Please model this.
Amino acid sequence: MTASVFSHSFLGALLGDEELDSYFTAAAELEAMLAFEVALAEAEAAEGLIAPAAVTAIRAWTHEFTPDLAALAVGTARDGVVVPALLQQLRAGLDPAAAAGLHKGATSQDAIDAAMAMRMQAVSLVLDRRLEALVDAFAQWGIEAGDREVMAHTRMQAARPTPFSRKLASWADPLVRCRLRREEIAPRAFALRLGGAVGDRADFGDKGEAIVQRVADALGLWPAAASLHSERDGIAEFGHWLSLITGALGKFGQDAALALQSEVGKLTLSGGGGSSVMPHKLNPVGAEVLVTLARFNATLVSGLHHALVHENERSGAAWTLEWMLLPQMALAAGAATRTAEDLLGQLSLREE
Model:
């Protein structure tokens, strides 16, 4: 076993997702936080809170800046967040006026939440693209199967014949609904949570709303009416969405595994997994992985509901819990979509 199966040298090939993993590197997080700082400075300059020259200096320096990761690690261990140490390094390369304009009116949570929202939105678009491909693949299978029937099973017992297209719909339709849900939750899940020290935007004066709108536009996020520092229902919704994806694909995997049983044999599998002692076996590895990932995310979504309990205006404990759970849930959903696509290419309806 390993602490993280997603990035393990060989388990990662089974349970990981290389494309989505790239959104959860230190480099990706720092890049997103720097983008936030530049967008904030640009918005504040446009609203007259800092000088245009400060923005020019901040923008140029962030493009050249190479962080000292060891020092960031020390700072994070001390402060619980990376932002104070990051700002210290950034300000060391700026003139006093630009250094004063950097991060003006903001707090660590603003930068970290914005960076998270940017990356999670990008992840959601990758997943949405894959869901579209899966729905198309199920539709193509239905065209190829025509009006063929299979035995339906209720409560694990043979019931009566039903069109195979009905079974395909039970696998594909939840994915269509997941795509629709992404659009519905996006304004809350991918909101710009910008509020300053205690979430009231006081340091922006009467420019708070305008600054939030400008920063949100620059980063491709939705402007939240309030800081949402301690209101995390939109993040929980996103985690729920990830679990719905893995759950829907887990149902497909479970049905496929049952239909591939030797005693049932309604589906055939090409390229299944082998056994160390039984060479005749062709194990439905992909189908099993889909079930595992569904159960994994169903477990973690409970943790995100615990993370809804942010005491007062900011919680270090609940906030940190989000950082531990969301990346794993996203990678599980990525692995599920990747595995389902591979599995679909291996399955076929057995000829009678």
